Amino acid sequence: MSKCNSCDDSSCATQKKGAQENDEQFQRRQALESRICSIDKRILVMSGKGGVGKSTTAVNMAIALSQQGHRVGLLDIDLHGPSLPKMLGLEDIRPNGSEEGIIPLEFAGLKLMSIGFLLEKTSDAMIIRGPMKNSAIQQLLADVVWGELDYLVVDCPPGTGDEPLSAVQMLGGKAAAVIVTTPQDVALVDVEKSISFCQQLKLPIIGMIENMSGFICPHCDKRSDIFKSGGGSRLAEKYSIPFLAQVPLDPRIVVAGDSGKPHILSHPESECSLALEHAAEEAHQWWQQR
Asked: Can you give the pTM of this predicted structure?
C-alpha cells in the first residue's frame, strides 16, 4: 500500500478508484497491485490434466531459476489439494505475520506460500467455491510480503477453472504460462484445452514440457516408453509453441517429492534434473527476448 501511495506514476490504474468500486474494493485492488508491482515476471505452471507432474515441475523449475541467480517466489494456488508443504517437508511449519502482512516461508532461496501453510492440519479440507476462491487467491498475493522478485512461479491446479482464471486476471500483463503434459493421447486432449484457455485470455505461452517421457531401466539401461513418447513435442509443433524439455520417468523423483527433498537438489546430475534446469533456462531466455 505504501508503495502505491508514494508512486508518482499517474498512468497507473491504482491511482484512481474505479467507477464501480467502493472504498474497500479500491483498497484491496491497490494492495494487490502494490505487491504485484514488485514482481518482474510471473510464470503460471498449468495443465488441463491432473497427475502429469505439474507441482514437481513448478518446484524444481523455481529452484533452478533461483540457482541461476534470480530472486524467486513460489505460490501454490491449488486450494483443494496443495502439494507444496509435503514436497518441501514443511507440513508442520506455519508462516509468521507482521504489520506489512504474512511473511512467506523460505526454502533453498525461494519465498513460499500455499493455502496448505495456513490450514490447522494438513488433512483439513478446504471447502470453498466460486467467488471465495477468487478472494483466497487475492489474499495469497496481496497479503503476503513477497518483496522484490525476478520471478513468481505459480503452481495451478489442473483444468481451466476459477483458480487459473483468477491468477491470470490478477497477475496482469507480465504473466505467461508453462504447460505440462505427459505423452499419451488421453493427457494431450485435456492439455490442448489449456492452450485454448491461454489463447482466449491472450496469455503468452513460454513453452511446453513433456513429463514421464520414457523410462531408463537402472539395471539394464533399456528405455521403455511407458506412456508413449513425443506427444508433447508434436502438440507444441501443432500450435507453434516452444518445446522446453522432455523429462523422463525416474523413481527417485517420487521419493524426492514424498521426502521433502526436491529432485533437483538431491540428484542434480540426473537426466530429470538436467532437463528441468534446461527448461528453466529456456524460460528465462524467452523472457529476455520479449
From this structure: 0.91
DSSP 128: -
| Residue 233, amino acid | S
Asked if residue 110 belongs to a domain, the reply is yes
Domain residues for 102?
40-288
pLDDT score of 2 more than 50: no
Residue 282 domain-assigned (yes or no): yes
In a domain, 7, yes or no: no
116 DSSP 8-state letter: G
Q: What is the chain's length?
A: 290
pLDDT (tens digit, 9 = 90+) per residue, 63-95? 999 999 999 999 999 999 999 999 999 999 999
Strands 149-155 and 72-76: parallel
Q: Specify the pLDDT at position 13.
A: 56
CATH number of the domain encompassing residue 57: 3.40.50.300
Q: Looking at the predicted structure, is the pLDDT value of residue 195 above 60?
A: yes
User: CB neighbours (10 Å) of residue 86?
Assistant: 17
Q: Count of domains in the chain?
A: 1
Q: State the DSSP code for 202.
A: T
Is residue 124 in some structural domain?
A: yes
The partner residues of 215 in beta bridges, in order of sequence, read 224, 249
**What CA–CA distance (Å, rounded) separates 114 from 105?**
9
